[in-house]
Structure prediction request, 168 residues.
Amino acid sequence: MKKFIILSVFLFTLCQVTLAQSVLISTFPNVQVKIRLLKNDYKSFDSVKFEMTITNLSDSIQSLLFDRPLKNYPWGTFAILIFDETHDTLSAKVNTEILSSTLYAKEDLKKTGAFYDLRPKQILKHTYRLADIAILKNYERTLKPGKYHFFLQYYINKSNEATFTIKK
Prediction:
């Protein structure tokens, strides 16, 4: 009986997450995503900052989740970080922020004012710390000196790549 209850709770949780994901991601935004580093050389992973710009490419208004209510993390976004010397991907593909963001119903989010109604060609911009988005596979917050590049994925929209160096 205990195994049945655990399995039932697991399946219920799985179905709820799947339903929430399908509600939020059923219509992918038609946007352009650009990233621009604030500078090229940094002393630590925690200091790497970049600007993320989203432009509405459609001919109609799109309701988008971006940086509300959390300003330090853009909804539906993950980062791929690569160490150029070894070509190793250092970031995990899924950030826990993304998982937690899928647990809300669209109607509940609309009530909170979390959506932007972005007109055609309208732009959203925000500056982020890469360490807040790129969760490293080893969960450390440090990078060894060297050259790195990264890009973002906002739902299904891939950004350009940006390159930076961690100096000693």
